[in-house]
Amino acid sequence: QVFSQHCPFLMGPIECLTDVVTPDTDIQVTLSIFEVASAAGIPCEVDPALVNVLGGTRTEGSSPEEDYKVSCLLLVFVAVTLPLMAADPASLYNPELDGYNNNLHCLARAIVQVSAALFTVHNKNIETHLKEFLLVSAL
């Protein structure tokens, strides 16, 4: 907010660039725009730093298809463990902390951010995979 007040001529174009990004935009262009926006303090749908880290951690000898399957299996694992985490005694709201003792309130954002970064690395549709995640977790 301070940066917007002191340098609106600089923040305006960056905000306009983030508004132009659509799911059809080339992934490299999108990541470049999100990297500039993140540096300026504008929240983005996909964290470019997380995408760079996840993209650079490929295991030796594994194919991109195997890495993609592992990413899908990670979401299945999280979806299957959600009921177990919800039943955990530490999953009670603590008014003193204004949250949960086991930080369960951070899980939704973590799932969205990590899955968005993972499927951006694999150049897949994030929304489709998150819908599948909801279907699996609802079972």
Automatic annotation (TrEMBL):
Source organism superkingdom: Eukaryota
UniProt source species: Sclerurus mexicanus (tawny-throated leaftosser)
Name of protein: NCKPL protein
Any Gene Ontology biological process: cell projection assembly
Gene Ontology annotations for the cellular component aspect, listed alphabetically: SCAR complex
Transmembrane segments: none
Lineage per the UniProt record: Eukaryota, Metazoa, Chordata, Craniata, Vertebrata
InterPro entries per record: Nck-associated_protein-1
A Pfam entry, by short name: Nckap1
